[in-house]
Design goal:
3 copies of one chain form a homotrimer. By secondary structure, the first copy, chain A, is mostly helical. Chain A has 8 helices and no strands. Chain A starts with a helix and ends in a 9-residue tail after the last helix. The relative contact order of chain A is 0.14.
């Protein structure tokens, strides 16, 4: 099971990095811009989480995350012409796996450090979506996750919150982890397949 | 007097959060966007201050600030239709109370930690306005406090700087706190009532 | 030689701050906006580096950097009319000196702390260009260094990476520092004089 988590982690980082690299390509950025924007969603959220929790930043401790994100950036750079023509459905699904993992793992780390379910849930969401927000802000766009559209951040919120509740109810860590990840993934799947959305305020 | 400070703190957080939530509503964001943008002005400045000073982030230590900001986000979400029609003069005044408090309290904390009046004044301004800058940047706008317009950040600068000077001159802490807050509030009031502005560079 | 480094540091901070202040003037910001945008390139990159490396933020420890940046902001505010009319070639060259210094010094600090050449190279680039990215994002523009155009971030990457390699190969610190700075400067010079660029992805 731990091997599966590692695979999910690598897939998630890789796909999150592609989302940033593609945004850079769409905005006509050069190779440096592609690398910076690939790193944002891949490591940005976890970096902010670690800074807020006063923990060593995870990719300073072990740099394989950076190498994966850099690989994704270079492959996107080389294959941009091919990728842009596609509907990239597989990308949305791989992204959902990454989101489900990151929100739960982020919540787990924050719960360990702070002991607060509220902080842990927030940090789970931050891990999952903060880097994507920075990506969109750099591209001069209203962040995708904050606009009316398919459920995304809500799935991260649900996964992080469910993990905290399951731990609070005494469910063993690994089971809580997989259940919460499944929940987040299914909710995001509802967004992809059914187009589930979150309400806007009434005007 | 301490009770009054706590009340001011709650009012400030609540009103700062409303400013973010309303910006999200204006930009057609969904409930998640409203929550994120409410949190930015409410806790963003203090978070940046604590990171720079290498102190534990204040809302990780005690989460009531987050709950207040979340309440403001939900109430704005529910009441957006009503709030948008109004001129919201009371909001500007409650915001001025929050600004006056945050800039002085931020300066106090930074002066304790760093001992430098310059750092303390900067951190007072950061506490008061940095979150609002992030709010505006996410909304894809030139930050309100940096444009020519009613005095706002200058009031935070004045309050933070006045507090440092009063402490330096040996004025007891609580008196310095209230005097500096009053100064910041009156300067901001001049912006609201009289439209005081700061100069732009000559072109 | 150490005196020369100090002079380069002051020149770099001053010129980086001018770049921010001029961006603020172009966007019609008031004096506060000019100060904030001057501080971003001058101290933003180093601040992010220190936060990520969990080191005390350099300008909290000693505030002369802030004073230099504030001076640049005020002088730009007063002289904006004159500066805007010019082609400012000297500014590009002084900026290149600052870039060459900051990327290498940033890499040196990160290599000391983390021992990783990858982290050190990244932190060198962050020290050199992250503040300028924030400056452009606040101005609501796609960051200059990420767009197709004259080599800039690449020079920082080259300088930081060369420094790490030279140290790895056993070259004494001061010699590695000056060689890497020279390399970064020459590469940036190629951008200024010859218009060297980095490729975009093929569409």
């Amino acid at each position: 099971m731990d091997n599966l988590l590692t695979i999910f982690d690598f897939v998630g980082i890789f796909v999150f990095a592609i989302s940033g690299a593609l945004a850079a390509v769409r905005n006509g950025m050069d190779l440096f811009g592609i690398i910076v924007l690939a790193l944002m969603p891949a490591v940005g959220g976890g970096t902010l989480r670690d800074l807020i929790l006063d923990q060593p930043v995870f990719w300073v401790e072990g740099t394989q995350t950076i190498w994966i994100a850099l690989s994704a950036a270079f492959l996107t750079f080389l294959g941009a012409r091919y990728l842009e023509g596609q509907r990239l459905v597989w990308l949305a699904w791989a992204d959902a796996v990454g989101l489900a993992l990151f929100c739960v793992v982020g919540a787990e780390k924050a719960l360990d450090v702070s002991g607060s379910m509220l902080v842990a849930t927030m940090m789970g969401v931050v891990t999952g979506v903060a880097g994507g927000i920075v990506r969109d802000v750099i591209c001069n766009e209203i962040p995708f996750v904050m606009k009316k559209g398919e459920i995304y951040a809500t799935a991260a919120f649900f996964g992080a919150g469910a993990f905290c509740l399951l731990i609070y109810w005494g469910v063993p860590g690994p089971i809580a982890l997989w259940l919460a990840m499944l929940g987040a993934f299914l909710m995001r799947a509802g967004g992809i397949i059914r187009g589930w959305t979150l309400p806007q305020a009434l005007h």
